[in-house]
Structures are given as structure tokens and as C-alpha cells.
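lol ok so funny story. i was supposed to be doing the assay writeup but got distracted and ended up predicting the structure for this chain instead. priorities right. anyway since i did it might as well share w the group, maybe its usefull for someone
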Amino acid sequence: MQQRTAVARAFAVSPKILLLDEPFGALDALTRARLQAELVSVWGHESDTETVLMVTHGIDEAILLANRIVVMGNPPQPSIRSVIDVPISRPRDRVSVLDSPMFREVQGQLMALLAEEALDVA
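and the output, tada:
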């Protein structure tokens, strides 16, 4: 309930840009899915917010919610490793997105980048 309230409160002031840092990180899978859908609904229909910047470690969450994914590198030299556009049309629903070939393609790109990053750190 606190996460839902925090997201609603953020949209209530109608910011042009909304910054979210792991907004669904502490939630169970069902609540996370509901709040992701709610976020998309509020952003798409009831908000003047033009841009939502969200930090997440969830690959599927990033693909489901984002138009563009920026993959960051690890410290000590944090950097942008790659920018990946998500070419899946909107509106998106979890069931059809997860079965989409485009989803699998973007997921593969992200997994390859993360595996490469892990090798660089080792």
C-alpha cells in the first residue's frame, strides 16, 4: 500500500518528469504486476507527465514498461554501456508481451550486455 501511495502521490503534482528508483522492488510478484499496470494506466490516461525515468534491476520489468532502456556500467567507472529501444507497440499487456518475439530479442540483448559486464568485473 505504501508503494501505491508513493506512486500516486508522485503523479498527483503533475510533474513533467517523474524519477522512480526501484518503485516495485519490495513487492510480491502479483502486487508488482498490478502496480506496473496501474503506473502505465495513470501515466497514459490521467497525467501530464511526459517522461518517467525508472531505475530497475528487473529485465522483464524494463522491457514491459520502457520505450528505451539505458544499461549502466558498474563502478568504479560508471557509464552508459548501451541504449536499447523497445520496439513493442503500446498498449502492452504482460501476457502478450512475454510471448512476443521482439520481447525475446530485447531480452537477449540485455542478457548479453549483463553477461559481458559480469565478465569485465571478474
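The mean pLDDT is 85. The helical segments are 2-12, 29-45, 59-65, 94-98, 101-121.
back to the writeup now i swear
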